[in-house]
Amino acid sequence: MKLERIELTNFRNIESMELEAVPGVNVIHGENAQGKTNLTEAIWLFTGAKSFRGAKDRELIRFGTDSCKSKICFSSALRSQTAEIILSAKETAGTKAKEIFLNDIPLESTSELAGQFYSVVFSPAHLSLVREGPAFRRKFLDTAIGQILPRYEHYLREYQKILLQRNTLLKDLARFPQLIDTMEVWEEHLAKAAAAVVFCRARYVARILPQAAQVYEGISAGKERFTLRYLCGMEKAEEQPKDEIRKFFLKEFQRTRNADIERGATLCGPHRDDLELLVNEMPMRLYGSQGQQRSGVLALKMAECAMVEEVTGETPIVLLDDVMSELDAGRRDYLLNHLENRQVFVTCCDDESFYGLKSGKSFLIQSGNLVDTKLF
Ligand code: ATP
Ligand code: MG
């Protein structure tokens, strides 16, 4: 997959920009707060996922304007396509808050772009994956799986919906004890929905593990061993058929029912899952150094990339925001050498360290404007 061109209008601090990319390494450089991450974010939004900075659509519209537009031309193995996202601050009868077009045909939602445009992003914000609570790691899994299995979004929504219903019921029981009769039905639904989510997550982790371990080994020059452990309450869930997972959760929901009633919330299930990152068998979150944590996230991201390739046959576009400056020379070289055949967009303050690259182009960004380009 290659991004050929991007045009932005009123996207964050970018009033108007047209950028022609090269198939190899595209270096976006400039001083702080000039619009480098903004440009990266604009590209990422075409994957159909939410902003990797957690921004709301409104925040993407340039201050003092009512709408923003981003358009890309990209090519996959099969053909060249265009995609366009238009966001409006004010929804009127004639305009929707968000309009999406693929080859000039309107789409219902950005999630329909998943399966068309593939990209993997790594920014310092992704360090939360190791450092923060399990919600970040569930989000990583959900976004990564959603990209290769669009149906997964539906499984997740279904689970969330039924979970909410069971939780409401748990709270209502104090006032209406007779409602207990309906609990079993909800638990059966919930177990089925939980199994669909856990089945995908467990298999996904099992499949990215060898790749992530290999990348980590490369980054650490073979000195450290990296592994992942998917924690969903069930042992070796990746080896179980979906129905066994369903039965497991059904039992779990029944077992924890009384405690759940007391707490007014469901205490087990995929909404509590975690993905443990370990280096030399020790949890990275607690014992990893900064460099190890960064390498761990990078390994996960590269494995995500390899997985997209394996499943879709498309090489995702790699977006590396502010990553290079934080890596030592050895790690940086390893990374660049393992990105072959993939189109890369990398942001940094200056482009000097890239001059040695065989095929690349650099773009100098100042106050949201593209002021210079250089081929090397
Ligand atoms: P750094 O090197 O520090 O990471 P950067 O070049 O990546 O910098 P960006 O995050 O891309 O910087 O851009 C930040 C700039 O964009 C800030 O000056 C910010 O105020 C501005 N900005 C963010 N959102 C908007 C918006 N909706 N309208 C106008 N400007 C915005
Ligand atoms: Mg930035």
Secondary structure elements and their pairing?
Layout: E1 2-11, E2 14-20, E3 25-29, H1 36-44, E4 67-75, E5 80-88, E6 98-102, E7 105-107, E8 119-122, H2 128-131, H3 134-148, H4 151-172, H5 180-219, E9 226-231, H6 242-255, H7 257-263, E10 274-279, E11 282-283, H8 284-287, H9 290-312, E12 317-321, H10 329-337, E13 344-348, E14 360-366, E15 369-375
Parallel strand pairs: 3-13, 3-14, 8-12, 12-13
Antiparallel strand pairs: 1-2, 1-4, 4-5, 5-6, 6-7, 9-10, 10-11, 14-15
Helix pairs in contact: 4-5, 5-6, 5-9
Q: What is the element string, with H for helices and E for strands?
A: EEEHEEEEEHHHHEHHEEHHEHEEE
Query: Uncertain regions: pLDDT < 50 for 5+ in a row?
Result: none
Strand percent estimate: 15-25%
* Bound ligand species: adenosine-5'-triphosphate, magnesium ion
**Main sheet attributes: strand count, strand direction, barrel closure:** 6 strands, antiparallel
Strand order in the sheet with the most strands: 2-1-4-5-6-7
Ends apart, CA distance between termini: 21 Å
**Tertiary shape:** globular
Which structural class do the helices and strands define? alpha/beta
Number of helices: 10
Mean pLDDT, to the nearest integer, reads 92
**Helical fraction:** 25-40%
Per DSSP E runs of 2 or more residues, the count of β-strands stands at 15
Radius of gyration: 22 Å
